[in-house]
Write a structure and sequence with these properties.
about 130 residues, Rossmann fold, phosphoprotein, CheY-like_superfamily, about 40% helix, DNA-binding, five-stranded parallel beta sheet, transcription cis-regulatory region binding, alpha/beta
Length: about 130
């Protein structure tokens, strides 16, 4: 008998309440790791390049390394080609959405958001 491995999700958001909410909504169905900014996100990806998350939920507006810069770095490094990215941010202008999608984001959602919609989008991406 074998067990199915859970999909893993990395959350990168500088808002602690948002990280905790996302972890609460996703734990149980996914292995969830959360980091507090883009620099920590990048360090996590590099350090875990042999065991990458299946999906990242990435905020755009974070101090230091923002979500767009994390995406750009991922695009420049083929190790991260298989990591799906859902941008979850308060930035909802068309230019922001196009920039994220052109930089490799798999999907884009704006805050405030529906947890049920986010979970449905995650399932669509991972399954």
């Amino acid at each position: 008998m074998y067990s199915l491995q859970m999909h893993s999700i990395l959350i990168a958001d500088d808002d602690e309440e948002m990280r905790e909410l996302l972890k609460f909504k996703l734990q149980g169905g996914y292995e969830v790791t959360a980091v507090s900014d883009g620099e920590e996100c990048w360090r996590y990806l590099v350090a875990n390049s042999n065991d990458l998350p299946d999906l990242m939920i990435l905020d755009v507006m974070m101090p230091g390394l923002n979500g767009y810069r994390v995406l750009d770095r991922m695009q420049d490094d083929e190790r991260f080609d298989e990591v799906a990215v859902i941008m979850l941010t308060s930035r909802g202008k068309e230019d922001d959405i196009v920039r994220a999608l052109e930089s490799g984001a798999t999907d884009y959602m704006t805050k405030p958001f529906s947890a049920n919609e986010l979970i449905a989008r995650i399932k669509r991406v991972l399954e």
